Amino acid sequence: MIYERLIKIINARLPRHGAFALLEEKTGISARAWAHVWHGRTKPSADHLEQICLLYPEYTLWLMTGRTSPEAEQTSPDLEQLEELKKTVGP
Q1: pTM of the predicted model, to two decimals?
Q2: Cα–chain-centroid distance for residue 1?
Protein backbone atom coordinates (compact mmCIF):
# COMPACT_ATOMS: atom_id res chain seq x y z
CA MET A 1 0.00 0.00 0.00
CA ILE A 2 2.84 2.41 0.74
CA TYR A 3 4.26 1.44 -2.65
CA GLU A 4 1.05 2.48 -4.43
CA ARG A 5 0.96 5.80 -2.57
CA LEU A 6 4.63 6.46 -3.38
CA ILE A 7 3.96 5.86 -7.07
CA LYS A 8 0.93 8.15 -6.92
CA ILE A 9 3.10 10.96 -5.50
CA ILE A 10 5.75 10.46 -8.18
CA ASN A 11 3.11 10.48 -10.92
CA ALA A 12 1.36 13.55 -9.50
CA ARG A 13 4.37 15.73 -8.77
CA LEU A 14 7.03 14.85 -11.31
CA PRO A 15 7.21 15.19 -15.10
CA ARG A 16 6.43 12.09 -17.11
CA HIS A 17 9.84 12.17 -18.80
CA GLY A 18 12.96 12.62 -16.72
CA ALA A 19 11.30 11.90 -13.38
CA PHE A 20 13.95 9.45 -12.23
CA ALA A 21 16.85 11.74 -13.17
CA LEU A 22 15.15 14.59 -11.33
CA LEU A 23 14.64 12.38 -8.27
CA GLU A 24 18.32 11.40 -8.40
CA GLU A 25 19.32 15.06 -8.52
CA LYS A 26 17.06 15.98 -5.60
CA THR A 27 17.61 12.93 -3.39
CA GLY A 28 21.00 11.45 -4.17
CA ILE A 29 19.35 8.07 -4.82
CA SER A 30 20.22 6.82 -8.30
CA ALA A 31 17.75 7.18 -11.14
CA ARG A 32 18.11 3.45 -11.70
CA ALA A 33 17.04 2.72 -8.10
CA TRP A 34 14.00 5.00 -8.50
CA ALA A 35 13.13 3.29 -11.80
CA HIS A 36 13.35 -0.14 -10.18
CA VAL A 37 10.95 0.98 -7.46
CA TRP A 38 8.55 2.64 -9.91
CA HIS A 39 8.45 -0.47 -12.12
CA GLY A 40 7.89 -2.73 -9.11
CA ARG A 41 11.21 -4.57 -9.42
CA THR A 42 12.20 -3.62 -5.87
CA LYS A 43 10.35 -2.36 -2.85
CA PRO A 44 11.01 1.22 -1.75
CA SER A 45 13.63 1.43 0.96
CA ALA A 46 13.45 3.57 4.06
CA ASP A 47 15.74 5.99 2.22
CA HIS A 48 13.28 6.30 -0.68
CA LEU A 49 10.44 7.02 1.73
CA GLU A 50 12.45 9.50 3.78
CA GLN A 51 13.55 11.41 0.69
CA ILE A 52 10.00 11.66 -0.70
CA CYS A 53 8.82 12.91 2.70
CA LEU A 54 11.57 15.54 2.70
CA LEU A 55 10.70 16.62 -0.85
CA TYR A 56 6.94 16.64 -0.29
CA PRO A 57 6.32 17.00 3.45
CA GLU A 58 2.63 17.70 2.83
CA TYR A 59 2.24 14.01 1.86
CA THR A 60 4.11 12.44 4.79
CA LEU A 61 1.08 11.36 6.82
CA TRP A 62 -0.76 10.09 3.76
CA LEU A 63 2.27 8.22 2.39
CA MET A 64 2.88 6.39 5.64
CA THR A 65 -0.71 5.80 6.84
CA GLY A 66 -3.11 6.51 4.00
CA ARG A 67 -4.73 9.25 6.10
CA THR A 68 -4.89 13.01 5.60
CA SER A 69 -5.19 15.87 8.06
CA PRO A 70 -5.97 19.12 6.22
CA GLU A 71 -5.87 21.11 9.47
CA ALA A 72 -2.25 19.97 9.88
CA GLU A 73 -1.54 20.66 6.18
CA GLN A 74 -1.25 16.93 5.47
CA THR A 75 -2.90 16.03 2.19
CA SER A 76 -2.76 13.56 -0.70
CA PRO A 77 -2.45 14.02 -4.46
CA ASP A 78 -6.12 13.01 -4.85
CA LEU A 79 -7.31 15.48 -2.23
CA GLU A 80 -5.25 18.26 -3.83
CA GLN A 81 -6.72 17.45 -7.23
CA LEU A 82 -10.24 17.53 -5.77
CA GLU A 83 -9.57 20.93 -4.16
CA GLU A 84 -8.28 22.30 -7.48
CA LEU A 85 -11.37 20.98 -9.24
CA LYS A 86 -13.61 22.66 -6.66
CA LYS A 87 -11.86 25.98 -7.32
CA THR A 88 -12.37 25.57 -11.06
CA VAL A 89 -16.04 24.62 -10.82
CA GLY A 90 -16.90 27.12 -8.10
CA PRO A 91 -19.56 26.93 -5.38
Answers
A1: 0.88
A2: 13
